[in-house]
């Protein structure tokens, strides 16, 4: 039997009884939007992240976008302001910026960690720079200490795209607690996944939290009173109830992901396959286990022939996407090389040791074409 990249059915089947009970509770309540399930989940998730506020929204893109939108409403950002962002990220990091008529300034990653390189960030700061969007790519914390230093020195907002890094921590602080605000996604395949779309903004800033809470709900603070031209992007009661169940198991799931990652890192020794480099165990929650190979497509075909499904995160960098013709002129050689070489191996909370060993064996038997 093939080893799937990620088995969502198996992941949720572990908690089927609890999930069904939570769903039944919502169905029977007759209250489906902005109710007690959401309020409780927001409290739980803020507590988990170690911040004062969490605001449930419709998805991760909206979480990031609403942070920037709220800062614009509060006068901290203006049309045309520049936001520094890693060149190698999922498109949503860019879309949140451009959706708000802000200008993404993509910078190169540190090829060892895949995360944004602080020296490149420092070099990219100019007179119109107002914010840094850090992305904890693949589940590993970006270098938040040096990014926070830069942000402070240059009076910049520091925003975390934490969509892949629920629970990643450093010195007892978790993803979402390092910047001025952070956006999370609860897309089903994320480390904390709903059974549909979902997201959250987390922050210690009460003014920002209130503004995001109003903006996600038609710009309204009290029903039918509209202070801002908001949007409709709410985490519904059903997803909030399901996420309350899944949050309880997040740390166990992260521990299992770390176990699989350790197994891969101990088992895969191949001259043509470069393993991911980790700063420390706690800083990585292994949303993805990403290797590099100069002959990436050949490796993917080889794994497929051995029944191992893999994926590429991501095949085309944002600045090369058709959607962003204005960015096509940028030269980001490190970013572009990574997009040619990265391959994500199966990893997840239900992947068994024997599956991991088959993945390892398939990697070990790869004969790299010259
Ligand atoms: C998934 C993801 C998002 C967007 O989240 P959605 O819930 O899919 O909108 C944003 N940034 C990164 C890095 C992601 O992986």
Question: Can you walk through the features of this model?
Answer:
This protein is α/β, with parallel strands linked by helices. It folds into 2 domains: 8-247, Type I PLP-dependent aspartate aminotransferase-like (Major domain) (Aspartate Aminotransferase, domain 2, 3-Layer(aba) Sandwich), CATH 3.40.640; 250-364, Aspartate Aminotransferase, domain 1 (Alpha-Beta Complex), CATH 3.90.1150.10. The protein is 39% helix and 15% strand. It has 13 helices and 13 strands. It has helices spanning 8-13, 16-29, 36-49, 60-73, 91-99, 118-124, 144-153, 206-215, 237-247, 250-267, 296-305, 333-341, 353-364; strands spanning 53-57, 82-86, 103-107, 129-135, 157-161, 169-170, 173-174, 181-185, 199-203, 220-222, 225-226, 289-292, 342-345. The strands form 4 sheets. The chain has a 7-stranded mixed β-sheet, with helices on both faces. Strands 6-7 form a two-stranded antiparallel sheet. Helix 3 (36-49) packs parallel to helix 9 and helix 4 packs parallel to helix 5. The two termini are 30 Å apart. Pyridoxal-5'-phosphate is lined by residues 59-61, 89-90, 92-93, 135, 161, 163-164, 185, 187, 197, 199. InterPro entries: DegT/StrS_aminotransferase, PyrdxlP-dep_Trfase, PyrdxlP-dep_Trfase_major, PyrdxlP-dep_Trfase_small. This is Aminotransferase. Belongs to the DegT/DnrJ/EryC1 family.
């Amino acid at each position: 039997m093939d080893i799937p990249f990620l088995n969502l059915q198996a992941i949720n089947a572990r908690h089927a009884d609890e999930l069904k009970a939570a769903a039944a509770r919502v169905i029977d309540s007759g209250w489906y939007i902005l109710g007690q399930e959401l309020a409780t989940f927001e409290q739980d998730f803020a507590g988990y992240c170690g911040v004062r506020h969490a605001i449930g929204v419709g998805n991760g893109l909206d979480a990031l976008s609403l942070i920037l939108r709220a800062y614009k409403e509060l006068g901290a950002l203006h049309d045309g302001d520049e936001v520094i962002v890693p060149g190698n990220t999922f498109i949503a990091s860019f879309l949140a910026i451009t959706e708000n008529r802000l200008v993404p300034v993509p910078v190169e990653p540190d090829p060892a960690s895949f995360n944004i390189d602080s020296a490149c960030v420092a070099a990219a700061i100019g007179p119109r720079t107002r914010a840094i969007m850090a992305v904890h790519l693949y589940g590993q914390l970006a270098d938040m200490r040096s990014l926070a230093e830069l942000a402070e020195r240059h009076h910049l907002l520091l925003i975390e795209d934490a969509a892949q890094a629920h629970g990643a921590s450093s010195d007892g602080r978790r993803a979402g607690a390092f910047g001025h605000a952070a956006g999370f996604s609860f897309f089903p395949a994320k480390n904390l996944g709903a059974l549909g779309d979902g997201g959250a903004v987390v922050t210690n800033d009460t003014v920002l939290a209130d503004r995001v809470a109003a903006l996600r709900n038609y710009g309204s603070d009290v029903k039918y009173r509209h202070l801002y031209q908001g949007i409709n992007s709410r985490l519904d009661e059903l997803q909030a109830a399901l996420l309350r169940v899944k949050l309880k198991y997040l740390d166990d799931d992260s521990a299992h992901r770390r176990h699989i990652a350790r197994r891969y890192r101990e088992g895969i020794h191949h001259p043509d396959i470069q393993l991911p480099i980790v700063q420390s165990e706690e800083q990585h929650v292994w949303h993805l286990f990403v290797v590099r190979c100069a002959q990436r497509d050949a490796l993917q075909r080889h794994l497929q022939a051995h029944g191992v499904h893999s994926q590429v995160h991501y095949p085309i960098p944002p600045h090369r996407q058709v959607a962003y013709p204005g960015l096509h002129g940028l030269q980001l050689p490190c970013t572009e090389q990574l997009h040619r070489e990265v391959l994500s191996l199966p990893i997840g909370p239900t992947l068994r040791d024997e599956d991991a060993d088959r993945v390892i064996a398939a990697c070990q038997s790869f004969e790299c074409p010259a």
